[in-house]
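Checked the freezer inventory, then went back to the computational side. Two predictions to log before the end of the day. The first one is the construct we discussed on Monday; recording sequence and C-alpha cells without edits.
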Amino acid sequence: MAPLALNLQIDALRNLPNLTELPINEATILARIGTFRAFAAGDTIPIARLRSSQCYVILSGLADTVILDRDGEPISIGKLAEGDFFGNSIFFSSHSLLYAVQAQSQIFALQWSIERLHEKKQHLPVFMRLIEASYTQRRAISALSRVPLFSHVSVEERILLAAQLTRQEFGRNTVIFEQGSAGKALYLIEQGQIAVEQHGMIVATLSDGDFFGEMALLSATPHNATLRCLTPTRCLQLPGAVFAEQVAQHPSLEVAVRRVIDERMHHSERVRGDQTRQHLIKVAVRYGMFRGSHVLVRQPAQCPPDCRICEQACAERFGQTRMHLNAAKLEEWDITQSCRQCRVGAECVEACPENAIQWDDNGALRITDACTGCNECVVACPYDAVESQTIYLQNQHGPLWQLWQRMQKQSVQRQPKTVASKCDLCAGYDDRACLSQCPTGSLQLISVEELFPF
C-alpha cells in the first residue's frame, strides 16, 4: 500500500465516531491488514459463522442489520452507520448474531479477516475492547428482538430497553431461583437451556429466546418453579420495576404475558397429571434430545429382524460407526446413540485443548485435523457419542520415494494416528450414509419439535 493511501486510511479510522480513542499504532496495524470494500445500495452482505469469516467497519453509508427469529424468519434489529462494526460477533461467539447486513445506500467499509485479527489481537487492546463493546450491545438488542413478548416494541424502544438489561452467566446445574422465592426480575435467555422443576419434577425446558420470572412479577406471588441450568446459560435480566413500567406503557404486553402464563400453567398441570409425559421429558433430558435441533431416531417396527445396515453404512464410510442403535426407547421410537450437535455448552468443545471441534455452516460440530487424539472430548461427552479411532496416514516422504517403494515392491508405510470420531451429519458428503442405506425409511433425522410437539 502506498504511504499516502496508508496515511489516509489511518486518519479515516481514527476520525470515525466509535474509534476516536484508537491509538495511531493500532490504526496503522488495522490499515495495513485491512481491505477496502464498496457495496452498492441494495446489496446483501451475508455473515458467515466460521472463524475464516470477515469483520467490517463502515467508513460511510447506511445499512440495515438482519437476524433470524426463532422460526427462522428475518427481522431487522436496527441501522448501522459510519463507525459501526458488523461481522465481529464470531470473534467472541461460535455463532454469529447477524444473518445478513443490507446496504441502504452505497457503503464504503474496511474489512478484516477474523483470523488475521486473532493473530494481531495482542497488539490491538483498544480496538478489541471497542469491538467487544459493540458486540455486547448488539447481543442484548438481538436477544430482545427474538423474544415474541417484545415483538410489539419498536426497534428504537428495544435499543433503549437493551441499555437497562444486565447480563448474568450461570454454570451447568446452577439454580437461578428456587420454587417459593420472591420474584425480582424478568429473565430473557440469550443462550442456553434451562429445566423448569416443580416439586422435584421437570415439567418443561426453556432455551434461547424464552423468558421466565414473569408470573411472580405480575401476580406478586413467589416463584412457582425452580429454574435449573442444563447447560452453561447466559441470561439478560430486566429489573422488576422496569418491567412494570413497560407493562404500564404497553397494555398489550400484559395481555401477551398473561396468555403465556395461562399456557404454561396448563402445560404444567398436564405434565403433572400424565406419567407418560413425565417419562418422555425425563428421557429427553437424560439423553440430551433438547440439546440440538434434530435427533437421529428409528422405528424398530419397520426394521427387518437384526438389521444393522445403517451402522454398517456409517462404518464403511468412516472406518468405524459413528452411531449406535438402541440407546433409549421413546414410545415407538428408538433413540440412537449419536452426536446431538449441541447448540450451546457442548462439553466436547469445552474440553478440547486444541480448539479442534468447530461448527460448520450447516449446523454440525466437526472434528478438524487439529485433533491430537488426547481423548478429552471422549471423556467429556455425557452421551457417549464421541469415540477414539485409529486412522493411518501416508508416510510423509514425497511421491518419488513412494514410486521407488512400489517399484521395489515394498509397501508404502502408513503411520497410525489416534483421533476422536463422532457423527457430523456426514459433513462434506452429498448424503448421509445411514439414512441413504436404510432400506425401509425407518431411520430418520427428525426435528425436536416434531418429536416433542407439546
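The second is the one RB wanted added to the comparison set:
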Amino acid sequence: MSLLEMVKEAGIVGAGGAGFPTHVKLEAKAEYILLNGAECEPLLRVDQQLMELFPDEIIKGFEAARKLVGANKALIGIKGKHKKVVSILKERIEALQVGGFVEVKELEDAYPAGDEQILVYELTGRVVPEAGIPIQVGCVVINSETALNIYQASMNVPVTEKFITVAGDIPNRLTVKVPVGTPIIDVLKLSGLQSFDDYAVIDGGPMMGPIMSNLNGFVTKKTKGLIILKKQHYLIRRKTTSMEQARRVNKACEQCRMCTDMCPRYLLGHNLQPHKMMRVTNYALDAVEEQKSAYLCSQCNLCELFSCPIGLYPKSNNLYIKQKLMDKNIRFQSAQPAFNARKNREYRLVPSKRLIAKLGLYHFDQPAPMTEITLNPEIVYVKKSQHVGAPAIPVVSVGDHVSAGQLIGKIPENSLGAAIHASISGTVVETENDFIAIRRD
C-alpha cells in the first residue's frame, strides 16, 4: 500500500479549521509544502508542544508529505519567539539528514500568522489569488499535528486521538490527548471546574472560535482548543451579540476605514474593504459587484475585536452580506490574475501581546503544559462528518464488538470525505444518527 493510500485509510484531516481530507491535498503536485506551526490564536498551545515533544515524527511525516507532492522545499513556519522549539527542530533536521529539503523559517509574533494565505506569503513571498487556495501558487499547507498523523499512518496507526488545549479563566491550564468522540464536558472538567453555569466555552481560539451553544458535544478530529471564560467577560459578550444587534450598532459607522487598513487580506493586495461593506449595508446601496468582495473575508475577526475604534461589527456585516448573496446564488469570481502585497503591510502587523491585552486575556496567557491524563469515557460518539465532504458510511452495526483503531466508517464512493475509526474498544450502540456510538468494554 502506498503512503497516500495509508493516509487515506488512516482518516487524516486538517487537525484544525475546516478539516479538509489530507489525502486529497497530498494528491496535488507543488513546488513548496508548508508546515503551519504558527498557532497564532491566543492561549492555544498544541502545535508548539508537539514540535518540541515529537520533532522526529513530525519531521519524518512532513518529509514524507514533501515527497508525495514532489515539492523541492518543505518549510516549517514557526514563531521565532519559540526559541527552544526552533533549536530542537533545526538540530533534528540535521540529525535526520533532510536539511537539503526541510527548513525552519521563523515568523513574527503577529496575528493572524497562521492564516493559510498569510503563511504562504510569509514563507514564499507569493500571494494566493482572491478566493483562491495555496495550490494555485504552487503550495500545499499542513499543520504540525497533521504531519504527526502522517507519520503515524506510515506505521499503520489511524487517527483515533486528538490533542487539545484547555485554557482561560480556570485553575488548571493544560494540553491533553483524548480519544476522538470523548464528551466535551469530560475534557472541560480537567480545568478544575465542576460547574460551568457561570462560564461560556469557546470552541477553538478566542479570535475565530464560536461560543458553544451547549456543552453536550463531543471531541472531533478538528477540536484544538477549549477556552473557558466567565459569561460577563468582554470577549464572551462580544461573541454573543446577535446579527440583529450587530446591524443596529453598525449604523454608527463613520467610515474611518480602520477595519480595511488593518485587514490581513486587504494588506495582501485583495480587494476586501470592510468599511465599504458597512456603507453598502447602512445606506441600502444596490452595488452587487462591490458586495461580492464579502466572500473574501477570512473571518479572522481582527476588525471586530481589535481594529474598530468604536467596537462595531464589520466581520458580522461581511457574513450578513455573503449570506444574502448566497441565498440569491450570486458568487464571487476574481478577474485579476496576480496580486502584490500592499507596501505598508509590514507596519500594520498586530503583535500577539497587544491583541491579548485588547481581548482582556493578559492574565490567562499562561503555559498549558502537555499533561499525561488518561480519560476513559464510558461511551464515545464518533461523528460521521468531522471533515469537509460527505459523512462517512458506517461499516459496523449495533451490537458489533470493535477494537480501538478499527475502521467503523468509510468514505462514500466517488466522494470527498474521510474514514473514521473506533477510538476505544467496546460495543457499537448507535449508528443511525450523526454519530457512531461505542460503549466501552
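For RB: The chain has a mean pLDDT of 97. The chain is about 30% helix and 20% strand. Let me know if you want it refolded.
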